[in-house]
Specification:
The protein is an all-beta fold. The chain has strands at 2-4, 12-19, 24-29, 37-39, 53-61, 66-73.
């Protein structure tokens, strides 16, 4: 999954992925400004994190604004 954003004067602080039930599956926190285009592989070294289904990805920016988007994995 590639995540691109163009949020002026602020940067991404946290990326969180939740099951549709609300259970937290993944969290990345950034202490420095990351690229405006992030590649999230949806897996760790052992196995894929997401199986088929619907998930929610929440982006939290340095000013506290949160944006949530749906992920559908086939």
């Amino acid at each position: 999954v590639y995540i691109e954003y163009d949020y002026q004067n602020e940067f991404l602080k946290k990326l969180s992925v939740y099951e549709i039930s609300g259970a937290l599956l993944w969290i990345d926190e950034f202490t420095e400004e990351p690229s405006k285009r992030i590649k999230w592989s949806a897996s760790n070294s052992e196995k894929p994190i997401l199986s088929k289904g619907i998930y929610l990805m929440q982006l939290t920016f340095s000013d506290g604004v949160q944006v949530t988007r749906k992920i559908i994995k086939n």
